[in-house]
Amino acid sequence: MSDRETRHTELAEKYLPDDLLERFRDRAEVYDRENLFCHDDLAELATQGYLSVFVPTEFGGGGLTLNEVSRLQQRLATAAPSTALAVNMHLMCTGVVRAMFERGDRSLSYVFDEALTGEIFAFGVSEASNDGVLQDSTTVAEPQPDGGYLLTGVKIFTSLSPVWTRMIAHGLDNTDENNPTLVFGFLERSADGISTSDQWDVLGMRGSQSRATTLTKVRMRPDRVARTIPAGKHPDLLTFAIATHFQLLVGSVYAGIARRALTLGAQGLKTRQSSKNGTTFAEVPEFRSRLADALMEYMAVPAQLETYSRDFDDLVDHGAGWPLRLISARLNASTVARHATESAMMCVGGAGFNAGHEINRLFRDATASLFHPPSVDAARPMYAAALLDDN
Length: 391
Ligand SMILES: Cc1cc2nc3c(=O)[nH]c(=O)nc-3n(C[C@H](O)[C@H](O)[C@H](O)COP(=O)(O)OP(=O)(O)OC[C@H]3O[C@@H](n4cnc5c(N)ncnc54)[C@H](O)[C@@H]3O)c2cc1C
Prior knowledge:
Elements: H1 3-15, H2 18-34, H3 39-47, H4 66-79, H5 81-102, H6 110-116, E1 121-124, E2 140-143, E3 149-158, E4 166-173, E5 181-188, E6 194-196, E7 211-220, E8 225-230, H7 237-271, E9 273-274, E10 279-280, H8 285-313, H9 321-348, H10 358-367, H11 376-388
Parallel strand pairs: 1-4
Antiparallel strand pairs: 2-3, 3-7, 4-5, 5-8, 6-7, 9-10
Helix pairs in contact: 1-4, 4-5, 4-7, 4-8, 5-7, 7-8, 7-9, 7-10, 8-9, 9-10
The structure holds flavin-adenine dinucleotide.
The site of flavin-adenine dinucleotide has 25 residues, from helix 5, strand 1, strand 3 and helix 11.
């Protein structure tokens, strides 16, 4: 085995050993059925040091790379997709700061100290109807005389809603109508004006408890303002790091779901008997082909995640080619997760239609991938332009 693969194996054993994954898989069913937040999983991950994997070693963290965390997130999602998606938001925040630190911007290093003292970071970017995502905001950011801001708006789908203590959030400062400015920074849960929706009864990823968060004049302290940048398309290290971590780590979660679905599909075929053939369904050519196709389609997904995460770690400059790579990796992982869970459902047969069957949950969890930005419809113009328009 190469040194790299040996290290991946060691990290898997250190942070996510097999017995931990088995416990997580058992609890995932309960969280899903009872619509509960994954409290026990998060506590175990904290004990394992998983919440500080991205914190550089000189600060006392694990010092892992994006590539290493992508692999771990794929592994975690094979057992507990909701937990993986929820903790993803915390990992993203710390990973973004780590990436900036490595590129010479040390202004947000307080996030490392806070992560080590147990603060949990949420990602408060998504807003209803904001299809500009990081380039726009429906949240109002009112500048204050001390250099801070007051944020008012609704952030939808805030994963980790029962437990987060810090949130990276953005808002639009429209004081100068001709030069609207986006403000990015960190909010504290203890600040006045934060409320969490009591609505959360969803199709999948139920354990993530991604409830909407309403902000009413919530103070962003001056020393927690990370960036003020022009609204619209504007190159910036913070938003580049957010986009990279979001696309590749969310993609990793759906890659993990697809991988587990293939295993369940194979188990299903080996278990079910065909009275017509006198064998298990694992010997029936049509079923073998179905699973073979699913595996072939899946294989490209970890390969994309691997290449782009390593390129990011190695500071490869793909320039304007980065969004094409990152979004394609996440969209492909999403599509493959939905395809693989459907194929696996057919291999498992009618038993998989039962609410308590693992493939039933994975099938529902995979549908959440339809909603992460950008959707395939939103992304297509960029890919078409890359081939068809003169740039
Ligand atoms: C389980 C789960 C957990 C999540 N956790 C978080 C989290 O922790 N933090 C966070 O910030 N977000 C999170 N999200 C939010 C998610 O990533 C999306 O931003 C959100 O679901 C989009 O909601 P919407 O479809 O209602 O958006 P809407 O505002 O209704 O629609 C915007 C949609 O329009 C699409 N669109 C834009 N342009 C076009 C076009 N030209 N053609 C077609 N479509 C277009 C966009 O891709 C986007 O999907 C989570 C989502 C899920 C499902």
